[in-house]
Every structure is written in C-alpha cells, then in structure tokens.
Amino acid sequence: GLRKKEVNVLCLGLDNSGKTTIINQLKPANTQAQEIVPTIGFSIEKFKSSSLSFTVFDMSGQSRYRSLWEHYYKESHAIIFVIDSSDKLRMVVTKEELDTFLNHEDIRGKRIPVLFFANKMDLQDAMSSVKVSQMLCLENIKDKPWHICASNAVRGEGLQEGLDWLQGTMS
Ligand code: GTP
Ligand code: MG
Q1: Ligand 1 geometric centre to CA of 117 (Å)
Q2: Which of the four pLDDT bands, split at 50, 70 and 90, describes residue 1?
Q3: Which of 26, 117, 124, 154 has most ligand 1 atoms within 8 Å of CB, for mutation?
Q4: Domain boundaries, position 76
Q5: Ligand whose nearest atom lies closest to the CA of 24
Q6: Smallest CA separation from ligand 1 atom 12, residue
Q7: What is the ipTM of this complex?
C-alpha cells in the first residue's frame, strides 16, 4: 500500500498530567504497557493513524527535566500539550511553561499545530475544556493552528477526536 507520511510529535505538559497514559492508549494494543510509571528524561514511541506514521517524543514533565523540551522543538512537526484539568493549583505553572514554549525562538511564528488535551475530565473537580482554554489564554495563539479536547486517558475517551484533528491539519 501507500507509505504513510512520517511525522514527529513532541508531547509536553507538567508531570502527572497524563502524557504517557495518552500515548500508551494510542499505541497498538499488543505494544501497550500494562503499568505507567513517571517518565525519566523522555521516551520515544510509535503509532499510526489511517494516513500518518507518528514518532512521539514523550517528555518528562518533572521540573528537573523540562529543560530537555527545547532541544526537540526544531525537528517536531506537531505538539501534543497535556493538562491535568483537575490541578487548579498548578494551572499557573502550566501557563508559564506553555508561554515559555510559545515564545521560544524555534516555535514562535511557526505554523506548527498544537493539540491540547484537557485531561482527567473524569475527576470530580476537573475544569471544562473551555475553562482550561480560558485560564491558559489559548485564544491569544494566532500564529498556529490549535485545538483542545477534553479527555480521560485511563479510559481512552476524547483521544480519537484529538488525533483526527491532528491528522486533518497535517495531511
Ligand atoms: P510524567 O512522565 O511524570 O511527566 O507524567 P505524565 O504526564 O506522563 O503522566 P502519566 O501518564 O504517568 O499519568 C500520571 C497519573 O495520572 C497516572 O496515575 C495515571 O493513571 C493518571 N491519569 C492519567 N490520565 C488520567 C485521566 O484521564 N483520569 C484519571 N483519573 N487519571 C489519569
Ligand atoms: Mg510520562
């Protein structure tokens, strides 16, 4: 058949937001990890959609590893940015990290798509994706296509909608 277009995706977000859980759900069932542990440094994962072949750099969100993120900006074709919608206390830290990312010289002005997952929507005190979007001032992003989906990574809900958007904007 036709070769799928190969794309590099960088997965960012604070520690414990659910990045690895999301990526794990997108992988073929027979390669999924049974147990998710906090990422050390980063991990490289692969999966396919109907038209794209993804190589994902699943970064650690721990503060001591966040300085690694910027080394992968140049070679990335898309970003998945994951937010723990129930973590109100750290939403300002999330916004700081997002703004630092958006203003980076390798990212600013580049039309690279950014898919946001407002994750952990199953938790009692989770904010809606609209609220998360307001808190992070996503409306101010004018130089790139972006999209936000509410998700529950444990059950795999909302992930396909996000992936469909990403595929649509990249094919
Ligand atoms: P780092 O690798 O440390 O940056 O964290 P991470 O963003 O990769 O988070 P990880 O996927 O390891 O998930 C952290 C915890 O959140 C795990 O216990 C997951 O089971 C849990 N989790 C992830 N997604 C969800 C979700 O949608 N709902 C709920 N309730 N828990 C979730
Ligand atoms: Mg992880």
Answers
A1: 12
A2: low
A3: 154
A4: 5-170
A5: 1
A6: 38
A7: 0.99
Share of the chain residues as helix, strand and coil, in percent rounded to the nearest 5: 30, 25, 45
Evaluate if residue 31 carries a pLDDT over 70: yes
For residue 43, give the CATH number of its domain: 3.40.50.300
Atom 31 of ligand 1: nearest residue by CA position: 120
- pTM for the structure as a whole: 0.98
pLDDT (mean) for 7-18: 98
The Cα–Cα gap between 100 and 93 comes to 11
Q: How many domains does the chain have?
A: 1
Distance, CA 114 to ligand 1 centroid (Å)? 20
Ligand 1: residue whose CA is nearest its atom 21? 18
On whether the CB atoms of residues 147 and 80 are closer than 8 A, the answer is no
User: What is the C-alpha to C-alpha distance for residues 82 and 169, in angstroms, rounded to an integer?
Assistant: 19
Ligand 1: which of 36, 56, 93 to mutate, judged by most atoms within 8 Å of the beta carbon? 36
Among the listed residues 46, 60, 43, the one whose alpha carbon sits nearest the alpha carbon of residue 7: 46
User: Is the model's pLDDT at 45 over the cut of 80?
Assistant: yes
Q: Quick one: how far is CA 155 from the chain centroid? A: 17
Give Cα separations from 68 to 5, 8, 10, 57, 81 (angstroms): 26, 16, 11, 11, 15
